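Intended use. Records such as the Iron transporter entry shown here are meant for training and evaluating sequence-to-structure methods. They are not intended to support clinical decisions.
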Amino acid sequence: MPDNPEKQTSEEVDQTQLDLAQRAGDAYQEALDYMAEEVAHTGDKQEAGEYVVGFAQEEAEGMYVLKDEGRFEWVEPDDENCHLEVAACDAADGRLVPECTVIATLTGEDGEQVGPTRLPLLWHPGLYHYGKNLEVPGDGTYTIDLRVEPPTFKRHDERNGDRYGESVEVTFDGVDVETGQD
């Protein structure tokens, strides 16, 4: 299977559905680029196998946590000073691939590592992404290693469904990390 398989019409999907999926992916990629380039301190993306993997880094931030059904609690960061956001997207149409296991490791110039740590899926009003608040030693230049392990969900479509079956690893070198709390 090629690195970036195009989706084709089949008994499961017609051209209109493929076009709608592509438009959804284009919109997701636009939102990802906006987050990485305009909202976050830094970010980037690269293609890896059947995925486009992107990241954005900003200060640690508070989040709602569901405590019981219908009961949320706002939780501020403790010692965490970095928020890492990761998108694992379909390389063919750009949409987020849910239920992946995303593992991140940050390595400072001195060799000190943060992680590996699993990044859960996060809801955000502008962009679903995998992410987590982390505690890193401080501002500086880091290498960010990301591993995306395949989701285990079932896939529709005999022609287009055999995708996202292998793990991918990407490395972003020379990332300028700015720490703090928002």
